[in-house]
Amino acid sequence: MDDENHAAELRRLRWRCRRGMRELDQLLTRWLDVEWATASESTRGDFLRLLDREDDRLWRWFLGHETAPDAALDLLVRRIRALPH
C-alpha cells in the first residue's frame, strides 16, 4: 500500500474510532496510534470487527463487566485496556 492509500486508510479508521463516548474514542484511537502499524493482519481484522460492535457493548467489555464472546476480541480488548495512558 502506498503512502497516500495508507494515510487515507488511517483517516477512515480514525473516523470509525470516534464513538458516542470520549473514553471509547481514546481507547480505540490510542490502539490505532500505537499498535496498528505493527499489528498482524489477523489482529487488524479483529480490530475492525471490534469497531463494528455497539458502543454500550464495547464499554461493558472495556470496563470488565462482560467479556467478549469471541476469544480473539476478548484478547484484543484486554490488550487495549493494558496500553499505557
Comma- or semicolon-separated keywords:
DNA polymerase, domain 1, 0% strand, 85 residues
Walk me through the structure.
This protein is mostly helical and 85 residues long. It has a single domain (3-82), classed as Flavinator of succinate dehydrogenase (DNA polymerase, domain 1). 72% of the residues lie in helices and 0% in strands. The protein is built from 5 helices and no strands. The protein has helices at residues 3-17, 22-35, 41-51, 55-63, 71-82. The longest helix is centred in the N-terminal third of the chain and has 15 residues, at 3-17. It is globular. The relative contact order is 0.14. The mean pLDDT is 94.
